[in-house]
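thought: fold this chain, then report.
action: predict
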Amino acid sequence: MWVSRLLPFCKAQVQTSVMTSPAPTISDPVSGPWTGRRKARLGWVVGGLVLMVLCFAGGRYINAHWPYRYRNVEPLLQKVFASQIKIDHYHRTYFPRPGFVATGLTLRRYSAPDLPPIGSAESLVVEGSWADLLLLRNRVSLVDVERLHVVIPPVGSHANHEDFPPGSSADFSGPATVVEQLNIHNATLDIMRVNGSRYSFPIQQLVIRNLRKGQAISYFVDMQNAWPRGHILANGSFGPLLPSNLGATPVSGSFTFASVRLEDIHGLSGGLSSAGRFHGALAAIEADTTCKTPDFAVGKGKPTQLAASTHVTINGLNANMILHTVDVHTGATAVHAEGDIVGSPKVTNLDISVANGRAQDLLRPFFKGQVPITGAVWLHSHARLTPAGEGLTFLNRLEMDGVFDIPSERLTNRGTEQKLSDFSLRAQGAKTTKQPVPGDSVADGTAEVVSSLNGRAKIRDGIISTQYLYFEVPGADVDVNGTFNLRDGRVHMLGDVSMQSDISHAATGVKSILLKPLIPFFKKRNAGAKIPIAITGSPNQYKVTEDILHNK
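observation:
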């Protein structure tokens, strides 16, 4: 309307101007250029006005549809973290990238808003791009989280069930908006235990790319393991998540687990490093690993180099493991094992076999000094490692039952070897050899063959016990039972010796003369004497004595 009112006035002004102005002539040098300048100025003014109008309209449009308003951001964050989120402070950013910064975050599970928070974060930065914003693409370039702390209630507890009820895996399916990269720095994951303690996993960095509902993600993680302590680097892909069949979710990747401190497993020592690859479904992950320990020892045993390779199937939903093959190499001996690690808490069961190994290789990690025997060994046993507990060492937890055969046993202590050799000679009715210097010993594998050894044995609480242990020395067969302590090497075994000669040859000097009248009582039918024997002592002080009168 205001335009129509101005038209008559403008028309009158134009007519007056035409009547009063002189007619332009061809020789007028001013009228042409000034007309061009007026048109240029008018164009700039109109263009500026149009630009201002567009900027104003664009600003109103962006303000109305700004994706980083808190009411728009809150659902995105809840999908990213699968939790209800409370934020203490929030402000938007525009340059150089659109987004926002939030501080003081508190995370609660959807299904348990009244329980203590499961997590918190110091700060959260979200960045988009102006190109995505103008092209209306539903995408976020970066989500960066600093000092995230997540606390998981004890597995099997009421709080854990409330936080993660059946079907809650759907909460972790991801947001509808594409998050190109999610970075988490200096985070901590605490898994509480029933006794009030916790397994704490420091996470230096976790990077997740292409986070979106119904899509597979790629990941990289740099973190510390809780127990035993060690450094984990892993990368791979996960998903897409299948909420209706979580165990079928695909997973793959590779990892290294280095600087592992075996002393965290009470009763062991040494450093372990391993590497491997894995693939499959979440409920049945196939993994192949190799590992090495240059200084493995049990208790105060001698540090020994071990190398191992494994093929296992892992259930990522409950951490149960099927050990298809575990091959361990120590010295010249190969140990093969199969079994599983299952239950809550975890119990390890292994079937172990050794074919033509060396006894000294198997015993070395258990003994601080020299191992007591050497020689080829065949072994079949079942081992069970009970759950870790307060104050329990590896030997407290280890249970083994098996059979073994050492067909050509050698003793490494020269004094003990000499006593058995002399006993053997007397059992055959021959003269004994010269006694060695006390404490003299020999290296692994250098002593003479004095016996074969086989039988059944079991290990409980660090003590090997047997009710049937059979070994031979030339001229005599020995059948004993008793115990051997793996912690200090002490032995206490009693049994019978079946000799080729009579009882008087079981002793020397005057004692052998006094025993001659007893020959008829100890003589076996068509054979030599059968007499009691005792094997006692500790490393470097083992004694093999005739226990005729049952004196120990």
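thought: worth noting. Residues 31-65 form the longest helix (35 residues).
final: tokens above.
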